[in-house]
Design goal:
homodimer, alpha+beta, 18% strand, DNA-binding
Chain lengths: 339, 339
DNA sequence: GTTAGCACTCACGAGTGCGGAGTGCCAGTG
DNA sequence: CACTGGCACTCCGCACTCGTGAGTGCTAAC
């Protein structure tokens, strides 16, 4: 009973603070929410909540502000996910349905997510590690330069240019291309390194330099670059909070320019729950100490393919963002499955 | 003589204002620059410059600030391009040399440009209109879905997925692929529409639906999407000027998320001079009224391929940015030519 | 054409005072 | 024992004042 009210107070504080971005006091709290008690009682609860570390006051005799821990409790225990309205759902579906290729799906998704959450959105390309090779192409661009194009079964296209020391023989290249196609076509990316182990044996000595460099490039493409691409959108939303945004947005913008950072933000989401929320210092990136990240995995069918999510200030609308991220992840998975 | 000093005064004002971001007064001016005259004289010149619209004062009895017109004159008449130091040049070369493919060149270029200018950088992909087709590939991903991959002679890869109403016949697809390859291979993008006019005639009636949709997609790819891609980097630099940045950075960030805007910023650069500078209201985009854009074209050999540039506040270091943009454009052209 | 002097303007910062929102504590009540 | 009303206290934020100084325009002299 008592515990219940404390939690209700925390919830009310978070809701008010998210709405106003201003420290919230006991009196305002009882006015806005109809908790059936007096401000004085609320103050006692607040004092307790502060002792436990869920809220804090910026300075003496100011209202209370939720701490990271407070948001954590709020997210874990209190907030029911509010489902999107059906017009919203229809809009998502229609918007994503009109995509023409994978790039387009990614770009549209990131825009959509940024727009409905009014936060910075991240969308990771389907990971290569779960994909298999649909086609591989080797094409000479000049006498010493060729391009390798790799097409996955879910429509992702990877390219690499290769610079050769010696002039490329068209015949040798055709030969390698044909045999490589047979060897890797339909194979999963994870099995490629093993397949390549014995691949170069079938070629005569004079072709070895070319075979070797092609092989190395392919190996590099299926290992090094796995999971690499993340698209980003809606950075303008960061500027929406004038000075209200904790500190400057510069370090945040800087961090968001690093693919590595984006991958870390998205990457380590747990697999058991559908949506992962990382609040403030819980983030694995230092510059993101004053932001929260909401991510979800999306997949084609049952297999997990990649993650997407949003980044915003810790005082974000968690319920809304969680719902949006979840819904968009669902739809993206569906779209990719359909195509 | 008199005119000369006026220009020198304008130059000094611009330089000081760019350095300090604070209105500059007559006394400070004679102290920092050794113009051989007294503050009073400078004041007369300032009054004249203000009448002509080159400078303005934020409020009565404050120092002067250059207007867009002032910057324009400064750029046109006064600033000598300061060449990059040779270590800088070497760094550029080395950094770009280690790129593995076109995507990589673009990403590295935008990072490099953002880093040396400390501004937002834009780099446009080589335009398709000047490219020709090196290879085209059609690959079935499922029974009703196929992917078209287009490879240009400068290593750019374009992809499109195609959804068919009826199941795709592998044999028909192979046939179309072979003939399409013969028809468009080596042809310039501009000539593709013409070539396609008579292309479908050689196929029997039952293959027409498939041929038609492939043809339409190819046509779409070589016309609609031409010039479309611009990469962006260094947005964090916008946040560097606290309140000093004219107004909020939000509209600027929003505008920079639109590919169309980026293309307009880059696109209309004049061809006769090597570098184009557009100052404040000279920009074709409303949200960019308080920013300046420095762009240059880069090309492989003599043919113009695309543009790159930087975006920053009007009070930017024009001489430095012009030099950097010019140098980077040169090196990118060289790298793309080499590969 | 240049300079020195002078009166004037006005943004800015420091200092002051006050109101109000908020708190903690304590004593009283069902 | 939990809740409430009351009270003293803190301290932020705002408005106001005022002195200072940088900067200007004008005029008269060189």
């Amino acid at each position: 009973m008592l515990e219940d009210r404390r939690l209700a107070v925390l919830r009310a504080i978070v809701e008010d603070y998210v709405a106003t971005h201003e420290p919230v006091g006991s009196k305002a709290l009882v006015e806005r929410h109809n908790l059936g008690v007096s401000p004085a009682t609320i103050r006692n609860d607040m004092a307790a909540l502060e002792d436990e570390g869920y809220i804090a006051q910026p300075h003496t005799s100011a209202g209370r502000v939720p701490t990271d821990l407070g948001y954590r409790l709020f997210v874990d225990r209190l907030s029911g996910v509010k489902p999107l309205s059906s017009p919203e759902r229809r809009a998502i579906q229609e918007f994503l349905d009109s995509s023409v290729d994978l790039d387009d799906v990614m770009v549209r998704t990131v825009r959509l997510l940024a727009q409905i959450t009014r936060q910075v959105a991240l969308v990771q390309y389907p990971t290569l590690s779960r994909s298999s090779v649909r086609h591989i192409e080797l094409i000479a661009l000049s006498t010493t330069r060729l391009i390798m194009v790799l097409i996955t079964d879910n429509g992702r296209v990877e390219q690499r240019t290769i610079e050769c020391a010696a002039p490329i023989s068209e015949i040798a290249l055709g030969d390698i291309r044909a045999r490589l196609l047979v060897a890797v076509s339909g194979q999963s990316f994870l099995s490629i390194p093993e397949i390549l182990l014995t691949f170069s044996g079938q070629f005569p000595a004079e072709m070895q330099p070319l075979v070797t460099i092609i092989q190395a490039t392919l190996l590099d493409a299926v290992t090094e670059r796995i999971d690499e691409r993340v698209v980003l959108g809606g950075t303008a939303h960061l500027a929406r909070y004038g000075d209200a945004f904790p500190l400057s947005i510069q370090p945040v913008l800087e961090a968001l320019e690093e693919q590595v950072v984006l991958l870390r933000l998205l990457g380590e989401s747990s697999t058991n729950t559908s949506v992962t929320v990382r609040i403030g210092h819980e983030n694995p990136v230092e510059a993101m100490e004053s932001t929260s990240v909401v991510t979800a995995r999306y997949g084609i069918g049952d297999s997990t393919v990649a993650s997407l999510g949003v980044v915003g200030p810790t005082h974000m609308d968690y319920a809304g963002n969680i719902a949006a991220v979840q819904a968009v992840a669902q739809y993206v998975g569906r779209i990719l499955g359909e195509q």
